[in-house]
Description:
A: 4-stranded antiparallel beta sheet, B: mainly beta, 11 strands
Amino acid sequence: GAVVSQHPSRVICKSGTSVKIECRSLDFQATTMFWYRQFPKQSLMLMATSNEGSKATYEQGVEKDKFLINHASLTLSTLTVTSAHPEDSSFYICSARDPQLDTQYFGPGTRLTVL
Amino acid sequence: RKEVEQDPGPFNVPEGATVAFNCTYSNSASQSFFWYRQDCRKEPKLLMSVYSSGNEDGRFTAQLNRASQYISLLIRDSKLSDSATYLCVVNFRNDYKLSFGAGTTVTVRA
């Protein structure tokens, strides 16, 4: 069964609104989670590394004030897309690292459409 | 230059055929290598890790060539269910960050 869940799986919102996406590790405690974005026919691009109890580390070119990440517990990280615009429409995928198995598991993804 | 490059394909093969494709990576200090499979509109799923000596998992064989900085995936006796996009994934540093290729699409036809 799934070891990482994401919610919601799909969201459609109006331009200017904020959208929160949750990523949960179900069977293990994840000190590190990652957030990716994938545009059609393109590769997954790492947006940021989410560390439990500390600030997220953002990749170059990713606005930290626009993509707010909170890793409040060892099983939950949230990504909030603030003031979403149509160009933010994408497939957002999180992954969680199981430190005991040294393996990353991916969530099922959230498809965001901004009108 | 992209960190990880793949031939996008598509590779259209009949059932039972063998299909192989490569991926090149730019950073010679890369440490870990993987093949993931991604079905349409779904998340990537780990197919197999790639080890220095090459490794096999059923009908799938992965090879690593550090000198030429490429990894390969070979699928024998293709099944219809093998139709997917195969993502080449590399870890450059010891910080668990993964770099993805854009994927190679394989379509197996009956």
